[in-house]
Write the structure tokens for this entry.
Amino acid sequence: MKSVSRSIALLGALTVVALAVPAGAFQDCPTGVTCTQYTGAGKNSSYFRINVPENWDGDVVVYNHGFDLNRKHIRNHETCENNSLVHCEADADCGSGNACNEISYSGLDALVLPMGKAIAASTYSNTGWAPFDSAKDIKEILKFMKKEPTIGKPTRVIITGHSGGGAVTADATLKMKIDGAVPMCGAVAGGLPTWDTAVDVRLVYDFLCDEVVGARFTSQPDIGEKTTADSGADEIAMALKVNTCFGVLFPSSDPGEAAAQADRLSDFIALTEFTGTGMEALSAMGFATLGLGDFVRDEDRLNGKHMGFNATPDLDYSTMGTDPVLAGEFDTGVKRLTQGSGRKKLTKASYPDFTKGKGKKVAYPILSMAGAADWLVIPPFQSVYDRAAQLGGKLLTQTWISTYGHCTFSAQETQALFDEYFAWLDSADLVANQPTADDLKAACLALPGGIDGDTCNFDTAFVNTNLDDRIPARSDWPPAAINP
């Protein structure tokens, strides 16, 4: 079971991307910074944490955490996960094997508090894919600040976040009246393109693995697996199925079957153009099964309504991936899903379009950083949001980091991102002073410890591709997701 535990640790690592991991007791304020900490609860079942520096300039940076399926994390800061009524300062306060819940800033507090900016974060009121209600969760933070006599209404609100928190950030730009945004490695393609990609990953798995004894998932591909507990049992069951098909944890002891497992994994990679390892393919399958099932089955979100759609006559998989013969076989044999009734609500949850609504009114700059080699939040996701901004006439600079992995950024890269963003936001002429990727690279190299190809990995030559070059576009996708 050691290998299984390793896979679950990898899947769990995707839930919150940390720039700094606290050791021992949680600190209210970073070393050398004087600040006041506030915690509270929103009326929509979210919890939040706010830190205001002594020399507050009126700005607040709202940080949004990544994908997390653990319901025990939706509770107040410094309360025990096994008992929300018990206050804690460290894991040891909660008893053996239990954790003290932290509403984390992923290290950004050490960066923005010394700038004079307040920082805040929410647990969200939902697990997993959060943009269904995340704008409301952020508004609860701002409402608290406005009503709290010792804080007051912020002068400017800047939204940021990693991974799933990047999706929350993008959602805020389209639904809220804010003053700035810095999405990081964000799943910003919108609800339908993002989760159609996940469904296609599941469909490829089913095509390759349904006939393998012990590997088949019984759930519908566009409903996903049911999550029943926060113990890790669901993740282990999922991991064992995927291992049976691909042998990513421990290959079969039978040489013939081990070779077949390796062949199936190779075919999975060829069809999906997945750029990760076998272990990372296991994590991707976690999103395509448990992650999808978390919000589709939730009565407060899609309530079991299907969200798939690949049954249209013109939806052609024959050009998918890198092996034309295999793609032709997949196009013939793939399960076809009629247009699900859950798609309409998923559209409302996240639809990148800056030509109408609050998104049309955006007048602030957006500075985005993502991984050119990110195997989970793939670069084509960024192309949807970038094109939506272009179609809406918005100021957006997209930068790319060449480091392999998901949300793998150095401290210098992150500091350069925020230094350049606030310089841009504070400038008198946003158009004339729009930074380029080269500007961010230069800013990174000028920082202490900034080394090209080491701590500063800005890829200024990277050229992205469209999402519909990766999977077939659906007719109800937002215009920005469809290659004209």
Summary: Confidence is low (pLDDT under 50) at residues 1-23. The chain is about 35% helix and 10% strand. The two ends are 49 Å apart (CA to CA). The chain has two domains: 25-189+353-481, 192-347.
